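name: query_chain
kind: protein
chains: 1
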Amino acid sequence: MSTRSDQTRNRPDKQRPNKALVLQPAAVRTSQPSGIILKAEELETQRPSVVTPENAAREQRGGQSLPAGLPVQSAPTKSAQPSAGHTAGREAGAKLSSLLRSTEPSGAGKREKAGEWKSVISKYVNLYNKAETDQHYAVLDDYIEDKDHCLRLRYRLERLRERELYRGVLPARGETKAELIKVNESSAEVSVLLKLHIRRQMEQSGLHYLEERTEIERLWLNQSGGAWRIFRIEPVIAERRPRFGVSEYTAAMEEDLDQTREASVFRSTPFLNLDQYPQLKQRVKGIPYRRELAAAYADRWWNEGNPAYEEFEVNCTNYISQCLFAGHAPMNYTGKRESGWWYKGRSGGKEWWSYSWAVSNALTNYLSGKRNSGLHATVVESVEELQLGDVITYDWNGDNRYQHSTIITAFDAAGMPLVNANTVPSRHRFWDYRDSYAWTEQTRYRFFHIADHF
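structure:
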């Protein structure tokens, strides 16, 4: 992780990018997490009502119809000894009760069963929220029996705690919402695809900012001793899955195509002696990059897909390209998927967009190429040199294959970038991703400062 030197911190403002902090005024801090908000339609259960002879008789007296041929005894008259008719009526009532119970809906038992395992999920989400806010795994260690996942969670939260301590950041408040995406049930086992929306209010130097992200986990539950338990958990690490298994695209190919294209452009451009036209010499050439528009688009669509575009299963780079385009970066249309940076949608069952638009490794190669027009960027060595609307790509395994892309949308109180991403939707997340299951000790980053003019 890059750190900030005194020299960088004290350099003149004209050399230091203007970074508007997206922060909130200081608020009253609470040391306890706020708990979770669960969707009512996902966790509500219904219990069947109990049918008794007295209830059946009362319903009959109230005018409610019953199946024909089922006698119901009315209320007996006051006497010291019950009559023979009353005894017969009580037997008939017992028979009625038995018949009514036998006609209960077959789904009632399933609903009661679902209510039991959903309560286990509800408790898990509460404990998950507490672990995230406290940045410690212990509260979940005794609740889930998957020790491999406990170890994964432990290492992730330890990295998170160390990083926040180094940054001088404290989690002031935490909230987790849960949604059941998919459920598979059998008589002895349930598997659940669970979507977790995590909101963490962070305090730094007396200022607050809100960090959000969405995680997906698959949980397996079974019954042990008559009670449901979670015996296995697997996080869905979508950042690690590129849309294509290998890159169909190399930086050398793109650079050669660029040089050929630019040469043909320059051959047809008349020469102007700018010393004879000072008004043209002073004018800035090209289209300005609207960084604030790129960041605003990123905040608008971080947690859902813009219906104007295709949404991919691995959507991170498609989302970043949309943000750059919203900031007025011009498309470089070549009609060839392995070159340029362009998008036309889907037509006739065919995909009409470049690999650089949708694949992180291809975008990394495209932005690393040398060009003087259109979308282009400068590779910088330090994250502190980045500005709003700049891009970071992530190589999780250190093998020079980049699998994830983010865009800078805000800065914390220390001036360090906060990023947005998609696929695993994130908003104002600290740039280094050490709080992700995708991160490894071999993780490498590529920092791109997008040109101010295209």
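note: Residues 1-37, 39-82, 95-105, 244-272 have pLDDT under 50 and may be disordered.
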